[in-house]
C-alpha cells in the first residue's frame, strides 16, 4: 500500500522532504498557510505528483500514515495535537534522510558553537589525505540533510549540524561520531522546560553503541553526567584542562591526549569559545587519522562562518565583526570574552523575557560603549546606564553603525552581537546580519567619497 505523507511547513526542508518521499513512491501532500500556489517551484513539484494546500485543518489527517513537520513548528498547533491523539507518527526531514547515510556520519549539536564547530570539522575532514569520497555538510546549517544523503556513497563523510528541534523528532538517530559543544538554557519558549531541552540534546547519543564516539565538552558537571549515560566511547574536550584523555588546552597549547597539535593563539578566529570549537574538531580529526600538522594548518587558516563572529572589515584601525548568530545571552558573552581591546557593542532583538542582567559582568569588563535596538533595546540601555557606559538606542540595527563608529577610537572593536533572536524585526539572523554589513559598507563608502 502506498504511504500517505503530510508535510507541515514548506520552507527548504519541507521541499527537500517532499521530493525525497515522492522519489520513494509516497503520496505527498504539503500543507502551509503561507504557500504561494502560483510559485514556479511549487508548480514544478506539482508536475511530479506532489500536492499542495494552504489549509491546515484536522480533516487533512484522514488516511495519513506519516507527518513530516518543519522543525520549528511546535507540537501544540491543533493539527499536530490531533495527530498525536490518533497515533500518527510525526518526524522531521532528518529522520527520513538519515536512512540513506552509508558513510561516516558526524553529527554536532549544542546551544552555542555548533555551526562553527560543524564548519571546522568539515574543513578538517576535507583535508584528510587520500580520501576516497567527499565531505558533505548539511542540517541546521542550511542545506537539508535529504538534499545530500540519497546520492551519497559509503566513502563519503556526512557532517550534520542538528538543532534541538530536529533531534526532538528524529527517532533512531545513530551517528558514528556525536559532538555536544555545550548545553545552556535555550529555546525554552519551545521546549517549555530545561529538562525537555537537555533531553532533546541528549538524543544525539541515545542510540550510539560502544563502537561509536561521543565528543563532549567536559567543563561542566552537568555535561559530564550526561556523557556517562551514553553507551558510546567518551572523548572529552576541555578548555580548562579538566581532563587529558581527549583534547584539551594546556599552557597555551592544544593537545589530543599526549600529542601537541598547535598553539591556541594560532587559531584563525578569536575567543575562548573558538578554542572549545577547535578542540572538538581536533578530536574528530585525530580519531579519523587526520595528521596533526594538517589539522593545525586547517584551523590556523579557518576564518570563521558568516554571521558567527565573522570578521567583516577593518576601517580607520577599527576591526568590525558580525555576530548576528548570537541569538542568546551566552553567545554574546562568549563573543565579548574573545577580545582584550575595548568593544563598542551593538545589541538587541526579540524579547523572550531572558534575564539580561547576566550580561552586566561582561559589559563591565569589555564594553566601552553600546548601541541598542529592537524589543530588548530599552532593557540593554538600562544596563549600560547602570554601569555609566555611553549608550544610544536606535530603531533598528540598520541605524546602529553610525553611532557605533562615533563612539569608537583607533584599535577598538565594533561588535554586532545581539544577544537575542531576530524575529522582532527580521525573518532570520542571516537577513539581520546582512543588513548590518550593508549599513557598515554604506557608511564606509560615504566616508571614502568625502
Automatic annotation (TrEMBL):
ATP binds at residues 110-116. Signal peptide: none annotated. Its EC number is 6.3.2.9. One of its GO terms (biological process) is peptidoglycan biosynthetic process. It is an enzyme of class 6 (ligase). Keywords: ATP-binding, Cell cycle, Cell division, Cell shape, Cell wall biogenesis/degradation, Cytoplasm, Ligase, Nucleotide-binding, Peptidoglycan synthesis. Pfam families: Mur_ligase_C (PF02875), Mur_ligase_M (PF08245), MurD-like_N (PF21799). It is found in: Cytoplasm. Residues 108-284 form the Mur ligase central domain. One of its GO terms (molecular function) is UDP-N-acetylmuramoylalanine-D-glutamate ligase activity. It comes from the Bacteria. Residues 307-419 form the Mur ligase C-terminal domain. It catalyses: UDP-N-acetyl-alpha-D-muramoyl-L-alanine + D-glutamate + ATP = UDP-N-acetyl-alpha-D-muramoyl-L-alanyl-D-glutamate + ADP + phosphate + H(+). InterPro entries: Mur-like_cat_sf, Mur_ligase_C, Mur_ligase_C_dom_sf, Mur_ligase_cen, MurD. Its main location: cytoplasm. One of its GO terms (cellular component) is cytoplasm. Pathway: Cell wall biogenesis; peptidoglycan biosynthesis. Belongs to the MurCDEF family. PANTHER family: UDP-N-ACETYLMURAMOYLALANINE--D-GLUTAMATE LIGASE. Cell wall formation. Catalyzes the addition of glutamate to the nucleotide precursor UDP-N-acetylmuramoyl-L-alanine (UMA). This is UDP-N-acetylmuramoylalanine--D-glutamate ligase.
Amino acid at each position: 500500500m502506498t504511504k500517505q505523507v503530510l508535510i507541515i511547513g514548506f520552507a527548504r526542508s519541507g521541499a527537500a522532504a517532499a521530493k525525497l518521499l515522492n522519489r520513494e513512491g509516497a503520496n505527498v501532500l504539503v500543507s502551509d498557510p503561507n504557500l504561494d500556489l502560483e510559485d514556479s517551484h511549487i508548480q514544478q513539484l506539482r508536475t511530479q505528483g506532489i500536492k499542495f494546500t494552504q489549509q491546515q485543518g484536522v480533516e487533512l489527517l484522514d488516511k495519513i500514515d506519516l507527518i513530516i513537520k518543519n522543525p520549528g513548528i511546535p507540537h501544540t498547533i491543533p493539527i499536530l495535537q490531533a495527530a498525536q491523539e490518533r497515533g500518527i507518527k510525526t518526524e522531521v526531514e532528518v529522520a527520513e534522510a538519515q536512512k540513506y547515510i552509508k558513510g561516516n556520519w558526524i553529527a554536532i549539536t549544542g546551544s552555542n558553537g555548533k555551526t562553527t564547530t560543524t564548519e571546522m570539522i568539515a574543513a578538517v575532514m576535507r583535508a584528510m589525505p587520500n580520501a576516497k569520497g567527499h565531505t558533505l555538510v548539511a542540517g541546521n546549517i542550511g542545506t537539508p540533510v535529504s538534499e545530500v544523503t540519497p546520492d551519497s556513497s559509503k566513502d563519503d563523510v556526512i557532517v550534520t549540524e542538528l538543532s534541538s528541534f530536529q533531534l526532538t523528532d528524529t527517532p533512531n538517530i545513530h551517528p558514528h561520531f556525536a559532538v555536544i559543544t555545550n548545553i545552556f538554557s535555550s529555546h525554552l519558549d519551545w521546549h517549555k522546560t530545561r529538562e525537555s531541552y537537555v533531553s532533546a540534546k541528549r538524543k544525539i547519543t541515545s542510540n550510539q553503541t560502544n563502537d561509536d564516539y561521543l565528543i563532549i565538552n567536559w567543563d561542566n558537571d552537568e555535561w559530564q553526567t550526561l556523557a556517562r549515560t551514553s553507551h558510546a566511547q567518551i572523548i572529552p574536550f576541555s578548555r580548562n584542562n579538566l581532563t587529558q584523555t581527549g583534547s584539551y588546552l594546556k599552557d597555551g597549547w592544544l593537545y589530543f591526549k599526549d600529542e601537541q597539535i598547535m598553539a591556541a593563539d594560532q587559531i584563525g578566529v578569536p575567543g575562548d569559545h573558538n578554542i572549545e570549537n577547535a578542540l572538538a574538531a581536533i578530536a574528530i580529526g585525530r580519531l579519523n587519522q587526520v595528521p596533526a600538522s594538517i589539522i593545525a594548518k586547517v584551523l590556523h587558516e579557518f576564518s570563521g562562518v558568516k554571521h558567527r563572529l565573522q570578521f567583516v572589515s577593518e576601517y580607520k584601525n577599527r576591526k568590525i565583526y558580525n555576530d548576528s548568530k548570537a541569538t542568546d545571552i551566552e553567545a554574546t558573552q562568549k563573543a565579548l570574552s574573545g577580545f582584550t581591546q575595548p568593544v563598542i557593542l551593538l545589541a538587541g532583538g526579540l524579547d523572550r523575557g531572558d534575564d539580561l542582567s547576566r550580561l552586566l559582568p561582561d559589559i563591565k569588563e569589555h564594553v566601552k560603549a553600546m548601541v541598542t535596538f529592537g524589543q530588548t533595546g530599552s532593557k540593554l540601555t538600562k544596563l549600560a546606564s547602570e554601569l555609566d557606559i555611553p549608550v544610544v538606542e536606535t530603531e533598528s540595527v540598520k541605524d546602529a553603525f553610525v553611532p557605533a563608529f562615533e563612539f569608537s577610537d583607533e584599535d577598538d572593536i565594533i561588535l554586532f552581537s545581539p544577544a537575542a533572536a531576530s524575529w522582532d524585526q527580521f525573518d532570520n539572523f542571516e537577513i539581520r546580519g546582512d543588513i548590518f554589513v550593508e549599513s557598515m559598507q554604506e557608511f564606509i563608502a560615504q566616508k571614502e567619497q568625502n
